From TrEMBL:
<feature type="domain" description="Alcohol dehydrogenase-like N-terminal">
    <location>
        <begin position="50"/>
        <end position="132"/>
    </location>
</feature>
<dbReference type="Pfam" id="PF00107">
    <property type="entry name" value="ADH_zinc_N"/>
</dbReference>
<dbReference type="InterPro" id="IPR013149">
    <property type="entry name" value="ADH-like_C"/>
</dbReference>
<dbReference type="Pfam" id="PF08240">
    <property type="entry name" value="ADH_N"/>
</dbReference>
<dbReference type="InterPro" id="IPR036291">
    <property type="entry name" value="NAD(P)-bd_dom_sf"/>
</dbReference>
<dbReference type="InterPro" id="IPR050129">
    <property type="entry name" value="Zn_alcohol_dh"/>
</dbReference>
<feature type="domain" description="Alcohol dehydrogenase-like C-terminal">
    <location>
        <begin position="171"/>
        <end position="261"/>
    </location>
</feature>
<dbReference type="InterPro" id="IPR013154">
    <property type="entry name" value="ADH-like_N"/>
</dbReference>
<dbReference type="InterPro" id="IPR011032">
    <property type="entry name" value="GroES-like_sf"/>
</dbReference>
<keyword id="KW-0560">Oxidoreductase</keyword>
<protein>
    <submittedName>
        <fullName>Alcohol dehydrogenase</fullName>
    </submittedName>
</protein>
Length: 347
């Protein structure tokens, strides 16, 4: 199979790897949509690896002995390789599992754990069946395009009575905007990069520059002097959390999605704020709600996905990510649009 490999600082190549093999409940998925997430940071930092990526949607081509999925089934691939037996996995919070499975050893495969590739191995319980009325491109947003902010909106109980401020309009923030808009909330977005600010505006957010001293005044005036009800921080900028807190009313809810060790907050106790640390979503309890959110967001997802490229152009795709000149990028490992290929495979 073809797969992305980071071979040197700043270098990602497409190489030939041996195809993976199923074993027990570990199945093989043919990847038809490979969204890009933070892999460009690994390339920039020189984190050499032959298994790139953690998001995918595709078709089960070898179900092994699985009783959960069948060959030919369209699925979304959840990240990681949770044991399926600990307290976190059994409750659907597999992202916190401390007992990750070694699926390569289990199946005798040399490769198959990265998703910027043509095939991937995955325990069957970490595959989410895709409803017939949802395209694979849209379904793939159930990974990181929607996943982290979906959990945030679920925990914040975002609704049509809320004013929501979303900090950062990268691919994750844009997903958060789409979901806030379709929940009926009034949405403000904070962004300094012109390309992404334009995307956020097209998706229904009122976009403000967090560096503008009048930003807080704008939010206060729009909310009768109170401040926003909810906030979601996705940018990862050091001062973003503290800045976002100044835009929220007392007793507001703040969801932190950004993966960073450098986030600082303002005075927490006098704010009475409830802080929600949001990583991924619970596919065992919330799949129906996720698919409903994706259905409602179809046209917004089409704006969120700014580039569709073949696998071989992964380096150019990461260049776009480096420059911030993109929303969500999806790659096609087999060089054709995912649903067209899925139809041919099914026939």
């Amino acid at each position: 199979m073809k797969a992305a490999t980071i071979t040197a600082p700043g270098v990602v190549d497409i190489v030939e790897q041996s195809d993976p093999h199923s074993g027990g409940d570990v199945v093989v998925v043919q990847i038809l949509v490979a969204p890009l997430c933070t892999e460009y940071r690994d390339r920039a930092s020189g984190n050499l690896t032959d298994h790139v990526g953690h998001e995918a949607a595709g078709i089960v081509i070898d179900a092994g002995t699985s009783t959960r999925v069948t060959t030919g089934q369209r699925v979304v691939v959840m990240p990681q390789f949770g044991c399926g037996r600990c307290r976190y996995c059994l409750s659907g919070e597999h992202i916190y599992c401390p007992f990750q499975r070694d699926v390569l050893t289990e199946t005798g495969s040399a490769f198959g754990t990265g998703t910027v590739a043509q095939y991937v191995l995955k325990p069957d319980w970490l595959l989410v069946p895709v409803p017939d009325d949802i395209s694979l491109e849209h379904a793939a947003m159930a990974c990181c395009g929607f996943g982290p902010t979906f959990q945030a909106h679920q925990r914040l109980s975002t609704n049509a009575l809320d004013t929501v401020v979303i900090s950062g309009c990268g691919p994750v923030g844009l997903g958060g905007i789409a979901q806030a808009v379709t929940r009926g909330a009034r949405v403000y977005a904070l962004e300094t990069q012109e390309y992404r600010a334009d995307l956020a505006g097209r998706m229904g957010a009122a976009v403000l520059d967090p560096r503008d001293p009048d930003t807080a005044k704008t939010i206060k005036e729009a909310t009768g002097g109170w401040g926003a009800d909810k906030g979601i921080e996705t940018s990862g900028a050091r001062s973003a959390g503290a800045g976002l807190m100044t835009l929220l009313r007392p007793r507001a809810d703040l969801g932190v999605v950004a993966w960073t060790n450098e986030l600082t907050l303002g005075p927490v106790i006098p704010s009475g704020m409830t802080l929600h640390a949001c990583w991924h979503w619970n596919h065992l309890t919330s799949s129906d709600a996720m698919w409903t959110s994706i259905r409602r967001s179809r046209t917004l997802i089409d704006t969120q996905i700014t580039h569709r490229m073949p696998l071989e152009e992964v380096s150019a795709a990461m260049d776009l990510q480096d420059a911030g000149a993109c929303g969500k990028i999806i790659l096609y490992p087999f060089g054709a649009t995912a649903d067209a290929l899925a139809a041919r495979t099914a026939s």
